[in-house]
C-alpha cells in the first residue's frame, strides 16, 4: 500500500497543479470574453446609427439576396420586384400614398373591354430613346410567349388572346394590343376586368425596348449594362453576390421630384442578425427585427415601426385521390383545435402579425370600406371535445382504427421550424394525431407542392394586385397555385361571378361567398397575416411600405440633415406633448 | 548468498540444499496482482481519470434512470413559460377563462377627416386600462381628442421603459384603422411586469401624430383553472377559485423556445447521443479488431490486400456517404436519420482500429509464447483469440474510449446541421442548433446542451487517457 501512497503522492501535485492551471485559464477566458462582450456592447450601443449621407443624398441598405431575375417578363420574387420598381416604370405607378398615378402614360381611358393610353412625350429610356407603345406590346408579347416560360404570364390574361397565346394556341402577334402612332396604345380586353388599372403597375406590364433586347443576344438583364432603364433610378453598379448600387436617372421624366441621389445596397445577406449588426454599426439605414432582437431594440430606445406586408400564411390540405385529408371530418377536427391567436401571440411574438381569421386579409378594400369590416370572417373557437368527435367520425368514414401520421411539408427557415413544431404538438396533444415534419428548401418545397407529395403544407400567398380576387381565385379548380387540387363547383361559380361583373357589390358578395366556403369546408386553416417590425435611421424620411407593389419604396424618400427635428420630437404641439406625458 | 561465500570453500560445500527458511524469505509480502487488478489500482490513483469515470457513470444514470425520476414529457410545450431561464418556479393567480373582447366603440366620436394631416392631430385622451391587466390580455380604452378631431385611426405602442426622455415609444403592438374603435386588446407575449402603453392618432395615410399619451400598466401572471388541471398543476378545476395561487410547472434548467422543459430534453437527448456514441463505437471497434487481427495474423499478400482496402475506406467522405445512406434507406425529411448515421459511422470508421490492431498483432505474432503455443499444436483461431487479442486489449480499450466521444461529437454535429434526429425528438446537437438562434437573449438554451456535450466528450477523453496509462504493460514494469 506504501507504493500506492507514494504514487498518489507523486501524482497528486501534478493533478492539482494542472487543475489550478486549467481553472485559471478557464477563469481568464471567461473574464476576457466578458470584457470583450462588454466592450463590443458599449461600442455598438454608442455608435450613432448612420447608413445615410445627407451631403451626397445616399442611403445604404442591405438586400436579403442577390436579385434572381431582373427581366421584368420573367421575374417572380420580391427582391427583384424591389429593384425593378425603382429602375423601371409601367403605364401607371403608385404614389407615396398608394394611389395610382400616371407613369409612362399621361392619360388613359379604361372601358369595359377596351382601354387606351396616351404616353407622355418626355418619357425616355436611359439611352435617350423615347418610350413608345411598341415597347409595351413587345414586352407583353414576350411575357406571353410560351417559349419565355414566364410564371407570371397569367397576370396578362385579361388582355384579349393573352391566355390563348400563353397556351400556344395563337402566335404572340395575335395579342389584341396595337400602337396608334408611337404615343397611343390601344388594348382590347378578354372580358371586363374591374381591377385592370391596378395591374398596370405590376412588373410583368413594364415596357422593354425591342432593339436593345435583341442587341443583348440572350443576356438581357444579366448585368447592369444589359438593362435599359426608364424608372427614377438606374443600376450604376452590380457586383454579383456582393452589392447593387442604384443611382438617380437624370433622364427620368419626373427627375425633379426624386430627392435621393443613390440607393446603395452595399450588403447582400439573408442573416437577420448580421443585418441588425450592420444597423447597429451604422452601416445601413434600415433593418428588420425578429422576436429575439426586440428587447435589444427597446433597450437601445430605437424608434420601432411596424408593417403588415399583406401576405397570408395558412395550412393547405391535399385533396388528391387517396389522401386522408380529403375527409372533411378530419379537416374540421384540425380546424377546431387550431388557435391562430396562440400561434401569433405566444410563438411568433412579433408585433404586426395578425391571427388569421380569413384568407382575405384585413387591408383589402370591399365595396366602400374594408372588405373584412363589411363581410366579417366566420369564426371558429377551439373546441377539443367537438374536434375529437369529428376525428372519430373521420376514422369511421375512412375505416381506420388509428390515424397514420400525416406529412406536414414546410420551409427550412427558423420561423417555419418553430411553427411546424408548434403545430406538431398541437395536433398531438389536442387530437392525438401524429405529424411528420418534412422540412425543405424553398425550391424543393415548391416542387413537392406541385407534385402533391404532402398531406398538409404550410404555405403563404402574397397579393399581386390590390383586389380581393388576388386571394379569391387561389382555390379555384383551374388555378395552378391551388397546390392541393381542391375542386368545388360552388366556389368556382362564385369566383366566376366576381370575375365577370363590374358591380362592386356583386363582386364582393361573391368574394364573401368564397370566404364562407373556405371556412365551412375547412379548405385551408389560416394561421396569420404576416407583419414585421423594423428600425430605420430617423434621418431617412418618406420611405413607403406597402402590401401591393414595390416595397420598401425609396422613390419618394429623402434624407433630413442632422440637427433638424425628427418626426416624433416635432415642435408643433409642445404643450399637448407635455399633457401626453402627464398621462403616463 | 554472496559470491564471496561460494569462493571461500572452508568446509562448507559450495552447493547445499536451500534451507526452508530461505524459501520463506522469498514469499511475496504483498498480495499478487493480476493485470486487471494492477490496471484498476493505477486508474484509481489517477484522480483525473477517476473523476471522469464517475462522470461517465453519472451520465449513464442520468440518461437511463433520469426520465424515471424527472417524469416530464420532453415534447410538452408550456407556452406560458417560453424561454424561461433557470430558476425557481413562478406563481400564477387563478383567473376565469379568457373571453373574447367586443372592444370599445365610440359611436359619438368625430368622423375621420382625410384632409387632416398628422401634424394637426393630437393624442387621444383618458387612456385607461379596462378590467385587470393580466398575462391573458391587457385591455385599453381611450377617448378621441375633441379639440383636434379627424383622426383616421390609432396606433398603440408598448415599452418596457418609460418613453419620456427621447420619445422611444417601444413596440408598435397595435394599429386600428377605424377611428370609432377606441379600445385595444394586447395579448402579445405578456409577461408579469410593468409596461408603458402609448397611444397616438393616425391620419388617413397612416402618418402618426407627434403627440401621444402614456399609461403604465402592471401585469399580473394568471392561469385559468382548466389550464391548471390540463397541465397537472391541480387535481380538480372546481377546487380552484379565482384569486387562488397556483405554482406553475417547475423547470429547474429553464425552458426552450417552445416552452419545453430543458432538463427532460437533455435527458432524452442524451439517449440519442449516448446510444450513437456507445453502439456505433462498439460495433465499429469490434469490426476493426477482427479485421485488423485477421490481416495481421495472415500477413503477406492477404495483409496487403486487406490493408489497401482499409486505406480505400479511409478515403471515402463521411458526409457524402451519410447522405447516400439516407437516400438508400428511403429516409424522408420527417424521419429520424439515426439509422443511416449509425450505418455510415460503422462502415466508415473501422479502419483506424483495424490498423492499430494489425500493428499490434504483427508484433505479437513474433513473440516466444505464440511460437510455443503454435508448437504445442494450437490452431490459428485459438492463437488469435486466446493469445493475441487479449494482449492488444490495452490498445483496444483506449481506442474505444476515444471512439465514444468522437461518435457523440459526430452525432451532435450531424444533428446540428439538421441531418440527425427528426423533430420533436431532441438530441444534444439539435438542441445546440436551436439554442444558437437565441444565444444572445436566452443563453441557457445553448449553454446547457453545449456544456453536456463538452463534459461528456472531455470525460471520455480523460478516461481514455487514464486507461492508456493504466493498461500499458510497459509502464507496469517500470515501477
Structure overview:
Chain A contains 18 helices and 20 strands. Chain A is of the alpha+beta class and 584 residues long. In chain A, α9 (328-337) packs antiparallel against α12. The longest helix of chain A has 45 residues, at 2-46. Chain A is globular, with a radius of gyration of 28 Å. With 479 residues, chain B is α+β, with helices and mostly antiparallel strands. A four-stranded antiparallel sheet of chain B has the order 5-4-7-8, with no helix packed on it. The longest helix of chain B has 37 residues, at 262-298. Chain B is elongated, with a radius of gyration of 37 Å. Chain B starts with a helix and ends with a helix. Classes of the chains: A alpha+beta (584), B alpha+beta (479). Chains A and B meet through α1, α8, β13, α10 and α13 of A and α3, β5 and β8 of B.
- Please state roughly what percent of the residues of chain A sit in beta strands, choosing from under 5%, 5-15%, 15-25%, 25-35%, 35-45% or over 45%: 15-25%
Q: Shape of chain A, please?
A: globular
Number of helices, where a helix is a run of at least 4 consecutive DSSP H or I residues of chain B:
17
Please report the total strand number of chain A as a whole number: 20
Number of helices of chain A: 18
Unreliable runs of chain B = none
Q: Summarize the biggest pleated sheet of chain A.
A: 7 strands, mixed
Q: In which range does the helix fraction of chain A lie?
A: 25-40%
Radius of gyration of chain A using CA atoms only? 28 Å
Work out the radius of gyration of chain B.
Answer: 37 Å
Oligomer: heterodimer
Given as residue ranges, the uncertain stretches of chain A (5+ residues, pLDDT < 50) are 1-14, 44-49, 565-584
Largest interface: A-B, 69 and 66 residues
Strand arrangement across the biggest beta sheet of chain B: 5-4-7-8
Coarse structural class of chain B: alpha+beta
The profile of the biggest β sheet of chain B is:
4 strands, antiparallel
| Helical/strand content category of chain A | alpha+beta
Q: Considering DSSP H and I runs of 4 or more, what fraction of the residues of chain B is helical? A: 40-55%
Amino acid at each position: 500500500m506504501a507504493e500506492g501512497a507514494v504514487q498518489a503522492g507523486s501524482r497528486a501535485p501534478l493533478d492539482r497543479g494542472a487543475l489550478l492551471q486549467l481553472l485559471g485559464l478557464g477563469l481568464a477566458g471567461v473574464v476576457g470574453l466578458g470584457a470583450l462582450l462588454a466592450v463590443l456592447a458599449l461600442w455598438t450601443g454608442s455608435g450613432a446609427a448612420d447608413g445615410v449621407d445627407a451631403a451626397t443624398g445616399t442611403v445604404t441598405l442591405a438586400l436579403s439576396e442577390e436579385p434572381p431575375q431582373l427581366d421584368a417578363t420573367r421575374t417572380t420574387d420580391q427582391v427583384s420586384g424591389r429593384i425593378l420598381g425603382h429602375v423601371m416604370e409601367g403605364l401607371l405607378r403608385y404614389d407615396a400614398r398608394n394611389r395610382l398615378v400616371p407613369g409612362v402614360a399621361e392619360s388613359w381611358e379604361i372601358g369595359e373591354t377596351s382601354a387606351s393610353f396616351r404616353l407622355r412625350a418626355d418619357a425616355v429610356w436611359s439611352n435617350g430613346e423615347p418610350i413608345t407603345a411598341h415597347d409595351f406590346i413587345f414586352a407583353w408579347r414576350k411575357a406571353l410567349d410560351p417559349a419565355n416560360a414566364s410564371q407570371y404570364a397569367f397576370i396578362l390574361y385579361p388582355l384579349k388572346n393573352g391566355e390563348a397565346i400563353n397556351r400556344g394556341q395563337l402566335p404572340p402577334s395575335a395579342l389584341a394590343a396595337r400602337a396608334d402612332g408611337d404615343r397611343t396604345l390601344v388594348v382590347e380586353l378578354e372580358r371586363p376586368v374591374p381591377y385592370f388599372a391596378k395591374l398596370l403597375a405590376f412588373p410583368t406590364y413594364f415596357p422593354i425596348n425591342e432593339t436593345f433586347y435583341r442587341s443583348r443576344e440572350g443576356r438581357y438583364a444579366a448585368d447592369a449594362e444589359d438593362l435599359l432603364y426608364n424608372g427614377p433610378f438606374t443600376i450604376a453598379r452590380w457586383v454579383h453576390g456582393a452589392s447593387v448600387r442604384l443611382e438617380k436617372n437624370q433622364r427620368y421624366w419626373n427627375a425633379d421630384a426624386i430627392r435621393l441621389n443613390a440607393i446603395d445596397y452595399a450588403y447582400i445577406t439573408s442573416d437577420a442578425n448580421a443585418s441588425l449588426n450592420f444597423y447597429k454599426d451604422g452601416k445601413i439605414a434600415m433593418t428588420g427585427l425578429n422576436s429575439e432582437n426586440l428587447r435589444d431594440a427597446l433597450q437601445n430606445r430605437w424608434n420601432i415601426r411596424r408593417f403588415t406586408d399583406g401576405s397570408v400564411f395558412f395550412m393547405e390540405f391535399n385533396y388528391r385521390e387517396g389522401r386522408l385529408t380529403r375527409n372533411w371530418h378530419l379537416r374540421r377536427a384540425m380546424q377546431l383545435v387550431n388557435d391562430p391567436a396562440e400561434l401569433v401571440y405566444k410563438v411568433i411574438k412579433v408585433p404586426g402579425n395578425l391571427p388569421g381569421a380569413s384568407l382575405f386579409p384585413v387591408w383589402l378594400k370591399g365595396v366602400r370600406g374594408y372588405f373584412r369590416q363589411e363581410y366579417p370572417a366566420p369564426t371558429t373557437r377551439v373546441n377539443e371535445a367537438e374536434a375529437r368527435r369529428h376525428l372519430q367520425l373521420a376514422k369511421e368514414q375512412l375505416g381506420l382504427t388509428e390515424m397514420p401520421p400525416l406529412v406536414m411539408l414546410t420551409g427550412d427557415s427558423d420561423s417555419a421550424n418553430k411553427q411546424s413544431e408548434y403545430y406538431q404538438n398541437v395536433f398531438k396533444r389536442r387530437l392525438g394525431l401524429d405529424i411528420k415534419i418534412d422540412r425543405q428548401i424553398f425550391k424543393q418545397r415548391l416542387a413537392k407542392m406541385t407534385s402533391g407529395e404532402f398531406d398538409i403544407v404550410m404555405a403563404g400567398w402574397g397579393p399581386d394586385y390590390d383586389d380581393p380576387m388576388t386571394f379569391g381565385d387561389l382555390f379555384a379548380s383551374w388555378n395552378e397555385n391551388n397546390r392541393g387540387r381542391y375542386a368545388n363547383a360552388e366556389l368556382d361559380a362564385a369566383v366566376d361571378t366576381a370575375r365577370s361583373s363590374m358591380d362592386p357589390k356583386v363582386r364582393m358578395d361573391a368574394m364573401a361567398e368564397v370566404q364562407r366556403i373556405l371556412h365551412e369546408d375547412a379548405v385551408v386553416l389560416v394561421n396569420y397575416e404576416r407583419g414585421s417590425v423594423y428600425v430605420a435611421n430617423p434621418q431617412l424620411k418618406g420611405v413607403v411600405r406597402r402590401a401591393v407593389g414595390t416595397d420598401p419604396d425609396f422613390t419618394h424618400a429623402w434624407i433630413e440633415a442632422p440637427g433638424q427635428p425628427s418626426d416624433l420630437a416635432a415642435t408643433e404641439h409642445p404643450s399637448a406633448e407635455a399633457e401626453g406625458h402627464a398621462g403616463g | 548468498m554472496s559470491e564471496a561465500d561460494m569462493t571461500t570453500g572452508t568446509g562448507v560445500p559450495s552447493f547445499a540444499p536451500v534451507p526452508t527458511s530461505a524459501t520463506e524469505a522469498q514469499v511475496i509480502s504483498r498480495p499478487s496482482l493480476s493485470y486487471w487488478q494492477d490496471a484498476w489500482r493505477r486508474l484509481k490513483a489517477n484522480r483525473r481519470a477517476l473523476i471522469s469515470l464517475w462522470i461517465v457513470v453519472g451520465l449513464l444514470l442520468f440518461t437511463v434512470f433520469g426520465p424515471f425520476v424527472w417524469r416530464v414529457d420532453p415534447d410538452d410545450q408550456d407556452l406560458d413559460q417560453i424561454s424561461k431561464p433557470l430558476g425557481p418556479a413562478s406563481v400564477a393567480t387563478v383567473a376565469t377563462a379568457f373571453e373574447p373582447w367586443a372592444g370599445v366603440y365610440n359611436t359619438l366620436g368625430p368622423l375621420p377627416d382625410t384632409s387632416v394631416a398628422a401634424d394637426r392631430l393630437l393624442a387621444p385622451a383618458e387612456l385607461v386600462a379596462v378590467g385587470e391587466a393580466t398575462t391573458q390580455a391587457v385591455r385599453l380604452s381611450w377617448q378621441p381628442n375633441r379639440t383636434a378631431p379627424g383622426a383616421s385611426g390609432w396606433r398603440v405602442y408598448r415599452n418596457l421603459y418609460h418613453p419620456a426622455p427621447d420619445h422611444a415609444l417601444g413596440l408598435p403592438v397595435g394599429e386600428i384603422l377605424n377611428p370609432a374603435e377606441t379600445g385595444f386588446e394586447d395579448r402579445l407575449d405578456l409577461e408579469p411586469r410593468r409596461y408603458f402603453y402609448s397611444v397616438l392618432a393616425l391620419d388617413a395615410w397612416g402618418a402618426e401624430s407627434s403627440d401621444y399619451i402614456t399609461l403604465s400598466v402592471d401585469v399580473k401572471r394568471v392561469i385559468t383553472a382548466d389550464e391548471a388541471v390540463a397541465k397537472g398543476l391541480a387535481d380538480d378545476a372546481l377546487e380552484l377559485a379565482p384569486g387562488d395561487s397556483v405554482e406553475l410547472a417547475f423547470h429547474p434548467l429553464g425552458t426552450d423556445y417552445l416552452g419545453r422543459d430543458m432538463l427532460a430534453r437533455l435527458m432524452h437527448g442524451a439517449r440519442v447521443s449516448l446510444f450513437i456514441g456507445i453502439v456505433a463505437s462498439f460495433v465499429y471497434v469490434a469490426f476493426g479488431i477482427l479485421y485488423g487481427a485477421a490481416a495481421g495474423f495472415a500477413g503477406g499478400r492477404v495483409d496487403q490486400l486487406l490493408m489497401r482496402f482499409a486505406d480505400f475506406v479511409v478515403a471515402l467522405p463521411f458526409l457524402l456517404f451519410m447522405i447516400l445512406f439516407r437516400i438508400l434507406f428511403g429516409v424522408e425529411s420527417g424521419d429520424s436519420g439515426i439509422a443511416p448515421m449509425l450505418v455510415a459511422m460503422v462502415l466508415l470508421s473501422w479502419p483506424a482500429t483495424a490498423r492499430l490492431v494489425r500493428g499490434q498483432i504483427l508484433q505479437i505474432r513474433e513473440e516466444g509464447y505464440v511460437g510455443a503455443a503454435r508448437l504445442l499444436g494450437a490452431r490459428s483461431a485459438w492463437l488469435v483469440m486466446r493469445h493475441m487479442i487479449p494482449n492488444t486489449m490495452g490498445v483496444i480499450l483506449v481506442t474505444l474510449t476515444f471512439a465514444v466521444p468522437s461518435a457523440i461529437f459526430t452525432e451532435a454535429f450531424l444533428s446540428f446541421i439538421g441531418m440527425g434526429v427528426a423533430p420533436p425528438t431532441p438530441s444534444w446537437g439539435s438542441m445546440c442548433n436551436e439554442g444558437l438562434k437565441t444565444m444572445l437573449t436566452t443563453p441557457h438554451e445553448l449553454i446547457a446542451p453545449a456544456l453536456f456535450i463538452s463534459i461528456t466528450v472531455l470525460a471520455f477523453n480523460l478516461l481514455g487517457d487514464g486507461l492508456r496509462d493504466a493498461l500499458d504493460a510497459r509502464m507496469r514494469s517500470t515501477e
